[in-house]
Write a structure and sequence with these properties.
The protein is an alpha+beta fold. It is about 20% helix and about 30% strand. It has a single domain (about 1-75), classed as ANL, C-terminal domain (GMP Synthetase, Chain A, domain 3, 2-Layer Sandwich).
């Protein structure tokens, strides 16, 4: 759950899409409280660009749910496969 001063945003439609593992975290931002940050890991040889992700989000998500920051990095998982968002928050917040 990412909290901004106006909305609480839950990452429900986020998951494995188009040969990538994608999750969102909230990163601190002074004016809004937090901003939506997408962390993306490619799981194939396909080359993903920030422009591709932005175009996909513009087509499928309302404006307030779109990530304002996009990061390409490994998405850590625990032994059962669950994404460890606390490790991402420690790294980027």
């Amino acid at each position: 759950m990412t909290d901004t001063k106006l909305f609480s945003i839950s990452p429900e439609p986020i998951g494995t899409v188009k040969n990538m593992i994608l999750t969102v975290i909230g990163t601190p931002q002074e004016r809004l409280g937090e901003i939506v940050t997408a962390v993306i890991q490619s799981i194939s040889d396909a080359i993903l660009t920030e422009a591709d992700i932005i175009a996909f989000c513009e087509e499928h998500l309302p404006r307030y749910r779109r990530p304002r920051m996009i990061l390409f990095d490994n998405v850590p998982r625990n032994p059962t496969g669950k994404i460890e968002k606390n490790k991402l928050r420690k790294k980027y917040c």
